[in-house]
């Protein structure tokens, strides 16, 4: 079952679902979703003198990214073909009986802005800000302003709560993240890590 605005408000009031700061619930809570705003931090991929990135390499992907902070009242220009990691302004906590789906807003989609490439899911138990995989698929640069509503979360109720939710018990590598996070794929079990 997908939560409606009434369900979302009830869960927020009960405190088991957290979206904070939720500064303007009348605008941010939609009929079946919550709009999240863009944070001020971005990770930009730099050109490197290597043939490619190997997920199983001991070399951190974070070595190929540069952090950018947008000043207050500033904007981030996303050029055609660019890919950058951004973050939500809000921090979320998803209870064990819900799953959250990160979706783009229609108004930005109509400007060719995509908010996730593949990571459109927040597992039960996830806590932290959400890293956005921002792309401009259009032909003109688009100005993104921190604080603007950039994405939306929809919530689906699970038939039963997750027995092993995302978090410390699972060794979840992005739990509690603040700001955009580069890939930590080298920590995956198939590449010699423990996750």
Produce a short descriptive summary.
Strands 1, 4, 5, 7, 9 and 11 form a six-stranded antiparallel sheet that branches. This protein has a five-stranded antiparallel sheet with strand order 2-3-13-8-10.
Layout of SSEs?
Layout: H1 5-14, E1 18-20, H2 25-28, E2 29-30, E3 33-37, E4 41-45, E5 65-69, E6 76-78, E7 83-93, E8 98-104, H3 106-109, E9 113-114, E10 121-122, E11 127-136, E12 142-144, E13 149-157
Antiparallel strand pairs: 1-7, 2-3, 3-13, 4-5, 4-7, 6-12, 7-11, 8-10, 8-13, 9-11
Total number of domains: 1
Oligomer: single chain
What structural class do helix, strand and pairing data support? mainly beta
Biggest pleated sheet:
6 strands, antiparallel
Radius of gyration from the alpha-carbon trace, in angstroms: 17 Å
Mean of pLDDT:
90
Q: What is the name of the CATH class?
A: Mainly Beta
CATH topology: Deoxyuridine 5'-Triphosphate Nucleotidohydrolase, Chain A
Would you write up a description of this structure?
This protein has 195 residues and is mainly beta. The protein has a single domain, classed as Deoxyuridine 5'-Triphosphate Nucleotidohydrolase, Chain A. Helix content is 9%, strand content 34%. The chain is built from three helices and 13 strands, in the order αβαβββββββαβββββ. The chain has helices at 5-14, 25-28, 106-109; strands spanning 18-20, 29-30, 33-37, 41-45, 65-69, 76-78, 83-93, 98-104, 113-114, 121-122, 127-136, 142-144, 149-157. Strands 1, 4, 5, 7, 9 and 11 form a six-stranded antiparallel β-sheet that branches. Strand 2 and strand 3 (33-37) form a beta hairpin. The longest helix is centred in the N-terminal third of the chain and has 10 residues, at 5-14. It is globular and about 50 Å long. The two termini are 30 Å apart.
């Amino acid at each position: 079952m997908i939560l409606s605005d009434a369900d979302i408000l009830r869960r927020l009031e009960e405190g088991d679902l957290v979206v904070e700061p939720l500064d303007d619930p009348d605008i941010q809570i939609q009929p079946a979703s919550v709009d999240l705003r863009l944070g001020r931090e971005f990770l930009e991929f730099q050109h490197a003198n290597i043939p490619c990135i190997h997920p199983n390499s001991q070399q951190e992907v974070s070595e190929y990214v540069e952090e950018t902070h947008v000043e207050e009242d500033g904007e981030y220009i996303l050029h055609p073909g660019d890919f950058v990691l951004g973050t939500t302004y809000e921090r979320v906590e998803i209870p064990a009986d819900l799953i959250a789906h990160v979706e783009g807003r229609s108004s930005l989609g109509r400007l060719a802005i995509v908010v996730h490439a593949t990571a459109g899911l927040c597992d039960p138990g996830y806590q932290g800000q959400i890293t956005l995989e921002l792309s401009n698929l259009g032909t003109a640069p688009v100005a993104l302003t921190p604080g603007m509503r950039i994405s939306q979360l929809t919530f689906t109720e699970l038939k039963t709560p997750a027995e092993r939710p995302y978090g410390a018990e699972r060794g979840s590598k992005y739990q509690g993240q603040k700001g955009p996070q580069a890939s930590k794929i080298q920590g995956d079990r198939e590449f010699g890590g423990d996750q």
